[in-house]
Amino acid sequence: MKDIKQELEAISVGMQSQVPTETLNAFGQSIADLQTKEFGKTYEEGMQFSGVAVLSEDGREISVLDLFQGKRMLVSFVRGSWCPFCNVEMAHLLAYYEELKVMNVEVMVISPMNIEAIKQWKVDMGMPFTIAQDKELKLSKSLGIDFELQDFVQPHYEALGIDVKAINDTEKAELVLPAVYLLDENGSITYRYMDVNYGNRLDLKEVIAKLS
Asked: Under 8 Å CB-to-CB from 185, ≥6 apart: which residues?
């Protein structure tokens, strides 16, 4: 699956008939509110990536830079398996994984979701790349790509069976923006994608073009 925009649009269209109108309106209001805020100002292109540790699959707390020292990396931040747009993004990443591997780019997916749930997600989707948990969104916060769900939208998530605090093991209903960082061998950010609208995701053709 390489045409990610069509897949994302199909999810959005499906939601129109499956999700209550008041919930869709609340989601739209939430995104509009986020669009008035600034994100990602602490680590921009040309800067060294954050050294804040994440929780690896084998239970180690280690930074992204230490985990893949001296290698080019693509680091993708996603909400988790409960997010249909994230599942589309993972399928898209799977479609490009071998191409990225040939270009000597390591791939890592990071989510605030509980590590056991992330590991199960990896199995369910057959992800060949590295995954990790951003516990309490510490790395996301250092990068400035975190946010707390607004009070008016939280009940709508819960009505859909999505308890963000329980899923992420956090005291607050905090999430991460969809974001992708491309790092060079020295850990410097050579490209960054970020969007407050969770229905939009990076088309990896842009990354392939950047690397070619």
From this structure: 70, 71, 72
